[in-house]
Write a structure and sequence with these properties.
Length: 249
C-alpha cells in the first residue's frame, strides 16, 4: 500500500529522518559535477567548449531526471511501501533469472567504467601532491616501460599502481562493512553535493565575473549556497542516523 504522503513512519522524527535520507539519495543521483571540467577540457573548439558543455549538461539532466522520476514513481505506484531500495535484489525473488542476471551485468559494466571516470580527479590530486612533495623519489615519479607480446609498450608507475590498488581495496572493504544501499548512498550524496556542485561553481562564478559584495546577485548566490549547505547538512545527519540504525538493528 502507498499514499500521497509517501512511506509511513512510526513517529514524526522517523519521518524526518526518511526525508533527510531521501534528499541525500537525490543528491547522489547527480554527481556529474565531479567530472564536468574534466570532460569539458577534452572538447574541441569551435564551437566554444562551454557552449557545447552547457547543451550536453542540459540534455543529460533532462534525460537522467526523467528516468529517475519514472523509476521512483512507477516503483512506488506498483509496490507502494514495499518498494525496495535496490529494485534488482530487494524483492525476495529472482525470476526470470536471465533478466535479473542481465540487469546486474549491465550494472557491473556501468560501474566499472563509471568508477574509473569518477575516481580520476581523486587519483590526479593525490598523485600530483605526492609528486610535488617528493620530486626525487624514484618510487613515485619513475615510469617503467613494459612490453608484452602482441601488445604495444606502455608505461607503469609503481606508486600509481600501489595507491590505486589500495584505494580500490579500501573502498571495497568499507562497502562490505556497510552493505546498506540507500543509507550509504545518502551519506555520499550529502557529502559530495554541496561543495562540488554548489559551493565551488558559485565561488568560481563570483571571482570570474568580479561580482561585487552585497550586490543583489552576490546576495542571491550566497543565500542559495547557504540554503543548499543546510539542506546537505540535514541530509547528512539523517543518512548517518539511518546508517547507524540499520547497522545496530
Amino acid at each position: 500500500m502507498g499514499s500521497i504522503t509517501g512511506v509511513s513512519a512510526s513517529s514524526a522524527i522517523d519521518k524526518v529522518w526518511n526525508i533527510s535520507q531521501a534528499l541525500g539519495d537525490i543528491a547522489f543521483a547527480f554527481p556529474y559535477s565531479l567530472i564536468l571540467l574534466e570532460i569539458q577540457d577534452t572538447l574541441k573548439s569551435p564551437p566554444p567548449e562551454n557552449e557545447t558543455m552547457k547543451k550536453a549538461s542540459t540534455i543529460a539532466l533532462v534525460v537522467t531526471t526523467f528516468f529517475y522520476i519514472c523509476c521512483g514513481g512507477f516503483g512506488y505506484a506498483a509496490f507502494g511501501e514495499n518498494t525496495p531500495g535496490n529494485l534488482l535484489t530487494g524483492f525476495g525473488f529472482y525470476e526470470p533469472y536471465w533478466l535479473i542476471d542481465f540487469a546486474n551485468a549491465c550494472v557491473v559494466l556501468h560501474l566499472l567504467g563509471g568508477y574509473q571516470v569518477y575516481s580520476q580527479p581523486v587519483f590526479a590530486t593525490i598523485e600530483k601532491w605526492f609528486a610535488d612533495k617528493y620530486p626525487n623519489s624514484e618510487f613515485i615519479n619513475h615510469n617503467f616501460s613494459i612490453k608484452l607480446p602482441f601488445l604495444p609498450a606502455f608505461g607503469l608507475n609503481l606508486f600509481r599502481v600501489c595507491f590505486r590498488t589500495a584505494y580500490v581495496v579500501s573502498i571495497t572493504v568499507i562497502s562490505i562493512i556497510f552493505p546498506y544501499f540507500n543509507q550509504v548512498i545518502g551519506v555520499l550524496g550529502a557529502l559530495n553535493f554541496w561543495p562540488l556542485t554548489i559551493y565551488f561553481p558559485v565561488e568560481m562564478y563570483l571571482r570570474q565575473r568580479n561580482v561585487e559584495a552585497w550586490t543583489t546577485k552576490w546576495i542571491m548566490l550566497r543565500a542559495f549556497s547557504f540554503l543548499v549547505f543546510f539542506l546537505a547538512l540535514f541530509a547528512l545527519i539523517g543518512s548517518v542516523e539511518e546508517l547507524i540504525s540499520a547497522k545496530l538493528s
